[in-house]
Design goal:
The complex is a heterodimer. Chain A is an all-beta fold. Chain A is built from no helices and 11 strands. In chain B, 0% of the residues lie in helices and 54% in strands. In chain B, the strands form 2 sheets. In chain B, strands 2, 4, 5, 9, 10 and 11 form a 6-stranded mixed beta sheet that branches. Chain B has a 5-stranded antiparallel beta sheet with strand order 1-3-8-7-6, with no helix packed on it. Chain B is globular, with a radius of gyration of 13 Å. Classes of the chains: A mainly beta, B mainly beta.
Chain lengths: 115, 110
Amino acid sequence: EPEVTQTPSHQVTQMGQEVILRCVPISNHLYFYWYRQILGQKVEFLVSFYNNEISEKSEIFDDQFSVERPDGSNFTLKIRSTKLEDSAMYFCASSWRGRANEKLFFGSGTQLSVL
Amino acid sequence: QKEVEQNSGPLSVPEGAIASLNCTYSDRGSQSFFWYRQYSGKSPELIMSIYSNGDKEDGRFTAQLNKASQYVSLLIRDSQPSDSATYLCAVDSGTYKYIFGTGTRLKVLA
């Protein structure tokens, strides 16, 4: 079965440093998402992306965050200047048409630790 | 603020019993409802989706939806120790995102 792949699986960084989390969505999917989950808390929506534009973003997704589809396969989340509270598991997801009744396929996640 | 509420548990059931997991949501406009299973440190895995009032069965799993009461449930029949996980309820927000509940931790005791 096709899957969403994320790299790296773990990322440790110092506060204030920039990090880039990478994702390869399923090849025929058109809608891409980032969610995050702080340890012990709920899965939270960050951003959705379609046709090289942000479709929607949450309050969490402030100016420190950006997303990009640099080529035909990768989808990245950049955090410009990491804070301690950015420590979380970050999940990339994709779907074919982005409709409300559609299944999201999640990647295995990147555990980000900010020291 | 659209909310999805779940009892955090843990819900403990003996092996072979029926586990019943519940979820309420605040947005009457929501049309799509999902149950995900999440093992510790892993990504959410879709178990069931339901869009219409009533029951939907898939193997040992039954999802139930009552839009009037804004209530979704998941029944797991013949629970197995391998079903021990956190079960996440997710609801569409009407736009390009889902809202997740905090999840209910299920423990199936051998």
